[in-house]
Specification:
The complex is a heterodimer of chains A (573) and B (181). Helix content of chain A is 37%, strand content 18%. Chain A is α/β, with parallel strands linked by helices and 573 residues long. With 181 residues, chain B is α+β, with helices and mostly antiparallel strands. In chain B, the strands form 2 sheets. In chain B, strands 5, 6, 7, 8 and 9 form a 5-stranded antiparallel beta sheet that branches. A 4-stranded antiparallel beta sheet of chain B has the order 2-3-1-4. In chain B, a hairpin with a 2-residue loop joins β6 and β7 (119-126). The longest helix of chain B has 13 residues, at 54-66. The chains are: A alpha/beta (573), B alpha+beta (181). The A-B interface holds A 120-121, 124-125, 128-129, 132, 149, 179, 181-190, 192, 306-308, 310-312, 315, 319, 321 and B 9-10, 13-14, 17-18, 21, 25, 55, 58-59, 62-63, 65-72, 164-170, 172, 174, 176-178, 180-181. The structure holds thiamine diphosphate (TPP).
Chain lengths: 573, 181
């Protein structure tokens, strides 16, 4: 192999290129300046963000939209610490990103030098792994390892902190395409034969099984296998928030979303099941409710790549530790088709009055509800390849309930950390990853204001991203908790907002405000037909509530439903 | 229940923090933690004792394996093992008491490592309860100062360092897998 003498900075870009990176999201500064200086010799496109948190969410959105590793770049100190929220977000949702930060010169480390922060120390608990690189000669191996660690096994964020001198000085560059040698890293575990046999026995003996479909399906690319499995066994599928899209919404075996804001019948079904097949999900507390009463009559099979998730929240009967797709490949030839019509019929009965309580089915009161906006958005975009990126709050849950996701990677949302401010930058990353897709941001008036500076990035990069602000004048989800649990004491949740449409115009973005139900579809059409980015400020019902709801700590079947009084009177309001 | 782990890690900067931070983050309380070298320069060895029930103990193991620099984890709680703690005890020993203290030290096979006009410093190595025993009988004389290293442990019989350094992500043995779940 031929070697070349290169600076650490040039080695960095060269290695990123070889890892298949075409775009990075970043923000310069003194300690990363040598890397920026060397960028001109690279084919990589650099997108200048407006805040480093944005860079990390963009890398994350890019990763979730494409399945590839997203890359964010920042300077030392404040640049690096601004990345923390985005790194933690990626960590909790197992999103593969690589963050590259500049660090002060290696001789200055530990001296509280200008803009020095121990970012490897700071990010230790929120990265899958991190590195401090102090020599140009370590850059190539580190980048190789970082990408491998970020994307293999249970994916996650990896941070590489590179001192200024490591960027400036030179080393012999020698790319080693082989799999990195990491003796302690074991991403390829697989179940034992015995465990497969136990799982099959449980499956074949169960009368009321349910598949719990999680994010792991999308990460491992097991959508077809899950579908095969469900169809062959006749087992219905309930989805986690991050699992939405892993199984087609229109499929007859699709039950819909489970958990805190899942449909009542879905949660009841889980509570009545005699077998849960957890596919790439981790029994998060938002999904299980009170653990003591969770699916207490059900045996549990957990297919999961991360052994540390086994028995963490819920005690399982059979763990199958491994990549979901591979595990299903092993199981599929052995599963038998069983007539489950009795079980499926009884689930149908559980649906009960859900349709009556659905705000969608109430007579038009002239009020615009968020559910209307989401539902119309779904109707108008269902025939084109669409990626919806949501923020966190009520609108996120309405999106999950009313947008019917058919395909994996068509919903991007911060599930584990629930990071407000995620949507707008993550959508930028998604659009960069999938330029052919129609990308919609669905964001609350609160979360939008956390990262709206990235509107400038959208304009500078000429990205066609459509933004739907679900503007209810409140930090809606918190207001809802105050309504239920704090006697309507709306402390610090009303928002005095700017005119979002004018704000959009100020950035040069075509913008409009919509407050009537009949204007929703035309506004979506306008956005679709316009060349550039469009912002729509949807002024929706201020005190609407996400139903059903499982209160934190309550049992999964104890749901707060839309009160029947409102069901009766909503039409007359 | 107190669990004892022997953890082999790559001898790299920051590894101790990674391991300790994992226990803190996952809210497990470390009872004792010792780190030292092994016969291989690239491998360090930790002995960690933690109070944990059976399920927690398995999750601790699985979480340790998630650290990229961790090579091998053995829970030796129920395995035949040699477990040692080292203590230095400075005990008040005036003229009258001195011969009694010396006698007690020799019964426990401890060594006197320093003699001062009114104190003796005794070094003792052994299982924790042996040290506790000596401490108990010395207390009436006045323990002025004490330091203990925390325990180090080694499984009896076959060596594990080889397993720690030869296993790679690609060829995990059955034993490793069962360790990790
Ligand atoms: C960074 C951050 N801060 C605070 C919260 C707590 N929180 C969760 S939902 C929510 C309200 C969101 O309000 P808005 O963005 O207007 O959306 P809505 O709920 O009204 O749809 C808040 C404050 C959070 N999730 N993230």
């Amino acid at each position: 192999m031929t070697t070349k003498n290169m600076t650490g900075a040039s080695i960095l870009w060269e290695c990123l290129e070889r890892e298949g990176v075409t775009t990075v999201f970043g923000y310069p500064g003194g300690a990363i300046l040598p890397a920026y200086d060397a960028l001109k010799g690279s084919k990589i496109h650099h997108i200048l963000v407006r805040h480093e948190q944005g860079a990390t969410h963009m890398a994350d959105g890019y990763a979730r939209a494409s399945g590839k590793v997203g890359v964010a770049v920042a300077t030392s100190g404040p640049g690096a610490t601004n990345m923390v929220t985005g790194i933690a977000t990626a960590m909790l949702d197992s999103s593969p990103i690589v963050c590259i930060t500049g660090q002060v010169g290696s001789k200055l480390i530990g001296s509280d030098a200008f803009q020095e922060t121990d970012i490897t120390g700071v990010t230790l608990p929120i990265t899958k792994h991190n590195y401090l690189v102090t020599h140009a000669s370590e850059v190539a191996r580190t980048v190789r390892e970082a990408f491998y660690v970020a994307r293999s096994g249970r994916p996650g964020p990896v941070l590489i902190d590179i001192t200024k001198d490591a960027q400036q000085t030179t080393a012999e560059f020698d790319w080693d395409a082989a799999k990195p040698q990491l003796p302690g890293y074991r991403p390829d575990l697989s179940p034992e034969k015995k465990e497969y046999e136990q799982a099959l026995e449980l499956i074949h003996n169960s009368k009321r099984p349910v598949i719990l479909a999680g994010h792991g399906i999308i990460i491992s690319g097991a959508m077809n296998e899950v579908r095969d499995f469900a169809e062959r066994t006749g087992i219905p599928v309930a989805l986690t928030l991050l699992g939405l899209g892993a199984f087609p919404a229109s499929h007859p075996l699709n039950l819909g979303m489970m958990g805190m804001h899942g449909e009542a019948w879905v949660n009841h079904t889980i509570q009545e099941a005699d077998l849960l097949l957890a596919f790439g999900m981790r029994f998060d507390d938002r999904v299980t409710g009170n653990l003591k009463t969770y699916a207490s009559n059900a045996k549990k099979i957990h297919i999961e790549i991360d052994p540390a998730e086994i028995n963490k929240n819920v005690k399982v009967d059979v763990p199958l530790v491994g990549d979901l797709r591979e595990v299903l490949h092993e199981l599929l030839p052995h599963v038998e088709s069983i007539d489950r019509s009795e079980w499926l019929d009884s689930i149908d009965k559980l649906k009960g009055d859900a349709a009556v309580r659905d705000i969608q089915n109430l007579p038009d009161s002239g009020h615009l509800y968020a559910a209307h906006v989401i539902n119309d958005l779904w109707r108008e975009t269902r025939d084109v390849e669409t990626v919806v990126v949501t923020d966190v709050g009520q609108h996120q849950m309405w999106e999950a309930q009313y947008y019917k996701h058919e395909k994996a990677r068509s919903l991007i949302t911060s599930g584990g950390l629930g990071t407000m401010g995620f949507a707008l930058p993550a959508a930028i990353g998604a659009k960069v990853a999938r330029p052919e897709a129609e990308v919609w941001v669905v964001v609350g008036d609160g979360g939008f204001q956390m990262t709206l500076c990235e509107l400038a990035t959208i304009v500078q990069e000429k990205l066609k991203v459509n933004i739907a602000i679900i503007n209810n004048g409140f930090l809606g989800m918190v207001r809802q908790w105050q309504e239920f649990f704090y006697e309507r004491n709306y402390a610090a949740t009303p928002l005095l907002n700017p005119d979002f449409a004018k704000l959009g115009e100020a950035y040069g973005i075509k913008s409009m405000t919509v407050s009537g139900r009949s204007q929703v579809v035309p506004s979506v059409h306008q956005a679709q037909q316009h060349d550039g980015p469009v912002l729509i400020n949807f002024r929706v019902e201020q005190e609407d509530t996400v139903y059903p709801m499982v209160a934190a700590g309550a049992s999964l079947h104890e749901m707060i439903r839309r009160p029947s009084k409102i069901v009766e009177t909503a039409g007359d309001e | 229940m107190l669990n004892t782990y022997v953890v082999y890690v790559e001898n790299k900067p920051g590894v101790l923090t990674r391991v300790a931070s994992l226990f803190r983050r996952r809210a497990f309380n470390i009872d004792s933690l010792t780190v030292g070298r092994t016969e291989k320069p690239e491998v360090s060895r930790m002995t960690i004792t933690v109070d944990a029930d059976h399920d927690q103990a398995r999750r601790i193991e699985a979480n340790l394996y998630k650290l990229v620099n961790v090579l091998l984890v053995e829970n030796i709680t129920n395995q035949p093992a040699i477990i040692r703690d080292l203590a230095m005890i400075k005990v008040a020993a005036t003229h009258d008491a001195r011969s009694h203290v010396l006698e007690l030290a020799s019964v426990f096979r401890a060594r006197v490592v320093d003699v001062a006009p009114d104190s003796l410093t005794i070094e003792i190595t052994g299982a924790e309860d042996k040290i506790d025993g000596l401490l108990e009988v010395l207390r009436p004389y006045g323990v002025l100062e004490m330091v203990r290293t925390g325990i180090v442990a080694m499984r009896r019989g076959k060596s594990s360092t080889t397993a720690a350094t030869t296993s790679t992500g690609a060829d995990v043995t059955e034993e490793d897998v069962s360790h990790s779940v």
